[in-house]
Amino acid sequence: MSKQAGAETRERLIEAASEILRTEGYAGTSARSIAKEAGVNSALVFYHFGGVDPLLLAALDRSSEQRMAAYREAVSGARTLEELIEVANAIYRADLEGGHITLFSELVGASIARPELREEIVKRSDPWIDFVEETLERVIGGSPLARLLPPRDLAYAAITFYLGVNMFTHLDADRSRTEALFDLAGRVAPRAKFLTVRFPRRRAKKLEEG
User: Fold this and answer.
1) H/E element holding 130?
2) For a Cys-Cys bond, which of 59, 72, 134, 191 suits 18, CB 3.0-4.6 Å?
3) Distance from C-alpha of 133 to C-alpha of 154, rounded to nearest angstrom
4) Is 0.70 surpassed by the pTM of this model?
5) Rounded to an integer, what is the distance from CA 172 to the centroid of its chain?
6) Could you report the average pLDDT of every consecutive run of 10 residues in the chain (210 residues)?
7) First-to-last C-alpha distance (Å) of the chain
8) How many beta carbons lie within 10 A of that of residue 144, not counting itself?
């Protein structure tokens, strides 16, 4: 197999794995079903990736890479907590419609019974926590809210919330309860506006001393 043909086969397998995982779930995913979707021999799943789980992780990595690029662009214009929540709402909807939530949720669910898969999922969550922390630091860093709720802690909370919403989406058929959570966040954000105001350093110091 030529280098180009091998690269093309890998791409087809990754695309097929994403499709099968989204439509059939982890329980319905196998080397045979993925290979059939890709139109190749099932032995190539093991030849190129060493097994089904590594291939599914490669599919998640591809989706995560694309989503991270989209996230960075989306949040770059957010300057306030309200704007950030609006962006988060749009991101959630895009992830839901695009299938990224399903990919992630299926693998998180499967990792409960598979420690080796769980370790890989945890490893892949770290860049997302860093990204959320960086974004929060840019938007609320230096404000009273950041002193009350450090961006790193908020980043953990945001990732936990996102995971919970991902899993609950499968139970919330009409998405009404999930939508209510984002509506609540949208109503709370304006009320927290004062806490995101960055005071001049001298004034902030006096307030802390007082």
Assistant:
1) helix 115-140
2) 59
3) 7
4) yes
5) 19
6) 82 96 92 96 96 95 91 90 85 77 84 88 89 92 87 88 70 68 70 63 48
7) 73
8) 18
